[in-house]
Amino acid sequence: MENVRKSKFNDTVMQSVFFMSAFVSVLAVIAISLFLFLRGIPAIAEIGFMDFIFSEKWGPVNTPASYGILSMIVGSIYVTAGAIVIGVPVGLMCAVFLAEFCPAAIYKIVKPAVNLLAGIPSIIYGFFGMQIVVPYVRDNIGGNGYSILSASIILGIMILPTIISISESSIRSVPGSYKEGSFGLGATKEETIFKVVVPAAKSGVLTAIILGIGRAVGETMAVVMVAGNAVMPLDKIALLKPIRTLTTNIVTEMSYASGLHESSLIATGVVLFVFIVILNASLSLIKSRSSRN
Amino acid sequence: MKRRKTLELILTISVLSIAAAGCSKGQSKEEFNFEKEITVVARDAASGTRGAFHEIMKIKVKTDGTETDNLAVGALEFDGTDKVVTAVEGDKHAIGYISVGSLSDRIKASSINGAEPTEENVKNGSYVISRPFLLVTKENKSELVEDFLNFASSSRGQAITKEMKYIPGAEEEAEYTASGLKGTIKVAGSTSVTPLMEKLQEEYKSLNPDVTFEMQSNGSSQGIKAAIDGSYDIGMSSRELKEDESASLQRHVLAIDGIAVILNKNNPINDLSSEEITGIYTGKITSWGQVK
Q1: pLDDT reported for residue A5
Q2: Parallel, antiparallel, or unpaired for β B234-237 and B130-137?
Q3: Which one in A31, A116, A271, A275 has a CA-CA gap of 20 to 30 Å to A12?
Q4: What is the number of other CB atoms lying within 10 angstroms of the CB of residue B61?
Q5: pLDDT at B28
């Protein structure tokens, strides 16, 4: 009897320990959202929603000051799109190769290399970008090197591991009967992979792309070193010209900012947060759809 | 099995050699081109160095009540001196600005209107881009504050200033002897002056162990305001006082910090005029050919 009561007590204790652990992460999300919105929303209200989101004039130290972040929103979108254009085809083809064609000996080299790529700190990517990619673009393509293109190349490489590992596992999880059926109908291996297996793994590949977009939108340290951080008027934005994104706006100016300037940077964070929430929402939409099928 | 090992070795070597080839690209091999667009490198909007440089070089334009920074469209903005240096070091056609104290042989400093950014030229005013590091107090300051200011302008205080690579502000070098006073000095203001101030306080406390400091690093304007309303004893400022501010304050020049215009080492140009710098930074001059 004593023993039963004791183990019941242990159960309750452990249950609350696990509950608390789960609660910590939820609490962190709530605390961060509260901080962002409590400090950001008043700033947006003071600046004026339209002047904040739909103006390209960013002059926080001018009198009168202007706080328009449209140029940075567009910048974030361009840089992310560039990263997708570079990273998705390479990543997807790498995943197909790893899952379907790769000899075991090469797999042993490529797979750890991809995993290692994921573990490299972003400041190293930034350094690499500033010392190798920027001069390369300047000498061989044009402009001064600090550009949308350089940022896209670096981000394209950074999102590779995410795209490769998720796509690979979703390609591997396609039931073998699909392939056997396709072979049975006389399709070649290539036709089977590109017309049957990859389409069957579609939701996994889409998940990979969206997680890649999330990584690219939020990346800061690497982008700040290669993008040049110039606030460009919308009509002057070009592939080989510098650009400022939402994240680099915050990190470039946070150190000395004060007053409304500082709150406007937190408000920039709010916009970034909304971006990420939209991405996550579309992610769960895809997941719920694929589980229904 | 042996063959695979060889294959791995060859692969590793080829990857490394590609990486090495990439590294040698770090410095551009192309010739200096006077027609190519100048890469303008600036600091972030909130930086004190930028504030001073843009004001002195008339990049920031004031007309009754409004203040507009006319920095050229597409000018790179970095949030630290190190990044400005790296950007100028790697790009033959770049121009940037940093505190004279941060100069190194990775880049070269241009002379301005014929004057090099030396201590002497900054002091006699022939080098035009400099900003004072000020300590401001009320007229009737306490004995303790007076003593600290004496220490800061003494030979001992000046040695620290020089060690931090700033130019001492005081003219004559007086000797300082510890006073043995007691109390607290409250200091607020410029983030740029803070590192120097901390060093000075450390040394002062070692001479006068009964004195404590309260420091707040919150920007020049805040520091000046705090000194005027008396909530702090000393305000630190990295810019000159405005007229309405200087009326009720005493200013002590702690040090002078020159701002150097830096160029890539391969740039054949060694001298720029103030007008040319203004032109480059406001986007009116776009290639080095227009400067030559």
Answers
A1: 79
A2: antiparallel
A3: A31
A4: 14
A5: 45
The single-letter DSSP state of residue A145 is: S
In the block, tokens 């501010």 appear at B245
Of chain A, the percentage scoring pLDDT greater than 90 comes to 80
What does the pLDDT look like over A127-186, one tens digit per residue? 999 999 999 999 899 888 999 999 999 999 999 999 999 999 999 999 999 999 999 999
Query: pLDDT, tens digit, for every residue of B132-190?
Result: 889 999 988 888 999 999 899 888 888 898 888 888 887 777 888 888 888 999 998 88
Q: Which element (helix H / strand E) includes A70?
A: helix A70-96
Q: Are B189 and B217 in contact (CB under 8 A)?
A: yes
Look at residues A281, A289, A261 and name the one whose alpha carbon lies nearest to residue A60: A261
| A113 neighbourhood in chain B, CB within 8 Å | none
Residue B95: the pLDDT is: 96
Distances A226 to A132, B96, B263 between C-alpha atoms, Å: 10, 16, 19
Contact (Cβ atoms closer than 8 angstroms) between residue B200 and residue B154? no
Angle between helices A2-47 and A259-292 (to 10 degrees): 120
Question: Is the alpha carbon torsion for A138, A143, A149, A150 positive or negative?
Answer: positive
Residue that is written with structure tokens 């303790």 in the block: B144
pLDDT at position B26, please? 43
Query: CB–CB of A256 and B68 under 8 A?
Result: no
User: How buried is residue A225: exposed, middle or buried, by Cβ count under 10 Å (0-12/13-18/19+)?
Assistant: buried
Interface list for chain B against chain A, based on CB atoms closer than 8 Å: 4, 8, 11, 22-23, 25-30, 37, 39, 44-48, 51, 65-69, 73-79, 83, 86-87, 90-91, 93-94, 191, 218-219, 222
List, for residues B68-93, the tens digit of each pLDDT value.
Answer: 999 999 999 998 888 899 999 999 99
Q: Which two tokens stand for residue B266?
A: 């391969």
d(CA B181, CA B211): 7
Measured between beta carbons, the chain B residues lying within 8 angstroms of A62 are 66-69
Pairs from B206-211 (Cβ < 8 Å, separation ≥ 24)? B207/B151, B207/B176, B207/B178, B208/B147, B208/B178, B208/B179, B208/B180, B208/B181, B210/B180, B210/B181, B210/B182, B210/B183, B211/B144, B211/B148, B211/B181, B211/B182, B211/B183, B211/B184, B211/B185
Question: What H or E segment, with its residue span, contains residue B50?
Answer: helix B48-56
Residues of B in contact with A244 (CB under 8 A): 77
In the stretch 108-167 of chain A, residues with CB closer than 8 A to chain B read 109, 130-132, 134-136, 138-139, 144-146
Residues 6+ apart with CB under 8 A from B241: B134, B136, B224, B249, B251
Q: What is the pLDDT of residues A231-282, one digit of tens each?
A: 999 999 999 999 999 999 999 888 667 778 889 999 999 999 999 999 999 8
B28 CA to chain A: closest CA distance, Å?
Answer: 7
Burial B166-188 (b: 16+ CB within 10 A, else e): bbbbbeeeeebeebebeeebbbb
